[in-house]
Amino acid sequence: MGEIIEKFFNGYCRNFDMTQTVICEFEQLPEGLRLLDSSCEYGVCQYSKDCTLMKQALAREKGMICTQRQPEA
Questions:
Q1: 33-47 confidence digits (pLDDT tens)
Q2: CB 43 within 8 A of CB 70
């Protein structure tokens, strides 16, 4: 298991209709970062597909691997 990295992201949450701070845990792997968890309901929230807040987290590192909690299409 790689090093665990926590990052904070601020932005508008459509589900709560307010600004939120989300903490994301990433695992540092040789090929990049992998999202492990977030302090919001990303993936189950009805707005996950268009979430501008989590887009920040997913774009944090170029080449990030995101294999968990992706929203359904």
A1: 888 999 999 889 999
A2: yes
